Amino acid sequence: AINISQPSFSGTDVFGYTSFLAYSTIPNITFYYEFRLKFQLANHHSALQDNLIFFTGQKGQGLNGDDFLELGLRDGRVVYSYNLGSGTATITSKPLDLTLNIHVVHLGRYLQKGWLKVDDQKNKTVTSPGRLVGLNVFSQFYLGGYHEYTPELLPKGYRFKDGFQGCIFDVQVRTSMNQEFKSPGTPEGHPNSGRSVGQCKDSPCRLIKCRNGGKCIEGGSTVYCDCPTGWKGAFCTETVSVCEPEHNPPHLCKQGGTCVPLPDGYTCHCPLGTTGTYCETG
Question: Checking phi first, is residue 144 left (phi over 0); if not, alpha (psi -120 to 50) or beta?
């Protein structure tokens, strides 16, 4: 168990799934919203990928008619995009100053007009196309990634291919200028679900003790022990039998012969029609 106050996300795994947090739908977001958040990149390379920071919206596949709101990173810039149902509006920041440890983002929208401010850069604005002025979204608010296979189910507006790599924290939102900023979620600050999320600057490997020369490997909140030759198990505490497939070198039983371990080695039980030390002879 890890106490998570500043979520750490590990991006997209080899199966196309992302680490993420999902919060309850943000109410009263239709005509006005403001978001504030901070993020810390896992490394400089992660700033150059198509990384999703947050998303809420419909799972449509078209550029028009699919209401959504999303924020992400692309080519070292913050990209803020929304669609009110009559076309996508997008603001792209200037390149991030990668010498900064923590980046601060402030964005919002009133009716068709949106704005984005990143770090000490100038405020940038955009006006969405068409006549529609309301954002109609009913999905949860996804932070850092998405609960399904992201590229297939996010809108085509300004699609992001990967989950975020690094830490996202101090996320706050308000849906009226007269409100105070609050953390998303019901109760406030509490996500409904998530996957592979760790605590920023806190490796889960400190909780894991691999034995017999094993090395702890982490990916997000997922950890495992990489065991040296001859050992196996969650903590490298089990010996590898001479007859097991992972034993190095492998046993030499041929033609379907069954390897049977002995105190000082192994023997091969040969199937009908074969003979020899390793069942090598017909």
Answer: left
Contact 66, 157 (CB under 8 A): yes
Supply the pTM of this predicted model: 0.76
- Mean pLDDT value of segment 83-106: 93
Residue 274: give its domain's CATH number.
2.10.25.10
Number of Cα atoms under 13 Å in the Cβ half of residue 88:
22
Kindly state whether residue 246 falls inside one of the protein's structural domains.
no
Phi and psi angles of residue 150, each rounded to the nearest 5 degrees, phi first: -50, -50
In the chain, the largest separation of any two C-alpha atoms, in whole Å, equals 88
CB atoms within 10 A of CB 198: 23
In a domain, 2, yes or no: no
Overall average pLDDT of the 121-143 stretch: 91
Residue 268, helix vs strand vs coil: strand
75 plus 59 within the same structural domain: yes
Task: Enumerate residues 6+ apart whose C-beta is below 8 A from 249.
Answer: none
Number of structural domains found in the chain: 3
Does 275 share its domain with 153?
no
Which residues neighbour 151 within 8 Å (Cβ) at sequence distance 6 or greater? Answer: 16, 159, 161
136 lies in the same domain as 93: yes
> Does residue 59 belong to any structural domain of this protein?
yes
DSSP, collapsed to helix, strand or coil, labels residue 47 as: helix
Quote the tokens at residue 94.
């200037």
